[in-house]
Amino acid sequence: MSSSIALSNICDIIKNKMPSLYNSIIVDTSIPVKDYNYFFISAFTQHVEYRTQQLDVALGDELYQKYSSLLNEFGDKEYVSIDNAFVEEIKVAPKSSTEGLLSSARKKMSELINGGRDVDYNKITLNVDDGFLSKDQPTFLVTKESYCSLCSNCNGNGTVERNDKQGLPHQESCPVCNGYGHTGRLTYFTPSIQEKKSTFVRCIEGEIDGLDFTIDGDTLTLKDTDFCVTIGDKKRMLTRYNGKNEDNYDEALKPYIETIRDKTSEKNAVEEIAYMVIPCCKFVYRNILTNELHNGVIVDPESSATVLLNIDGESRLISSVKDSIKKISRFFGNISKSEGFKDKEDLWHTARLLIAVAVADGSVNDEEKQNLAMAIRGTNQFTSEQQEQLVKLLGEPDASFINDDDFNFHSRENAEETALRMQELSQADGFVHDTELKIIERLKFKY
Length: 447
Known about the structure:
By secondary structure, the chain is of the alpha+beta class. It is built from 12 helices and 20 strands.
């Protein structure tokens, strides 16, 4: 990913912002500058939860007539709003056990796990206040799960026949309807409006190590710098309630919608979002006093232009080289045992090419030489004479010792694996020398 900012502009910014350091660094023109667009996002959302309540009661004649008339009045509607006073009447009616406790518990557990029942927002009308869902919402009857009827246990008589201790039959009050003759079920819910706020920073190109952003409310700062921005007003980007299904997302924001919903809800009814794009460019420079390569970043180059140098620290680069050498050591140790590298000629060419990449820029430190030498001497497929030949190559001033035959592999897979390891070794110190690149590309082009 190349950058939209020219290297000359980067130099000008550094010179302007850090004049005292400008003369001690050189921006590396051989390594492309990379763009990173950080999105500072602030979201406010509303989503609706529908937690079902269920009342199984015995109905007296008056309450039965009232409830049956109410149900007949609703027709085929799936959800209808009802007066809370009626719900209170049902609540104080005697309880009726028409469903097992286990079945009822399963329903409640299912709703607990799923965040309530699933209600089609096209079939329900919620209260709205100034474009937002109100906290105060009506109570809705679930018509398909509500009913009133004659008691199935006593057929509406209110009594059932039982035998006493002497075995003589007698009438007693029906235990299901409590002697009322009718039972009913009221299934209902009162929508609960859940509001959430979320503010975060994300970069779709990946995070830059060393950038430490801090969020306080709607303000974003960068640690140990003067960088500070405050996000603007939020914009309505989603409305999904009362039959409305409108979205108006900015194209640039779409990759981050999933993150917003992960932090709020997957079923938002309202989403209002504000965001800012914080452009950053990452470059590589050489400290001419220490001859070390480091990463630098310019945050918001077109505006505040905050410059950070040595963001990864010297130890990170050195560690990267050490890690690469360790991988090569393991590689030398494993390839002789692998069926893919049984051919001694492929193994020999692999070793010579890896050494060529290591010495191509004319600089191999003592630790690198020691690790590579140990790896070579630990490879049993090489004779003692071959091991000595390879170790001596580590002392060569450059990679001119390689020849055409070194690029001839019996196995295409072996060649591709070798090219991958060569590239890994060349990138370990953060700088790919032209000579290293030519060697790698030559092998890749051949296969």
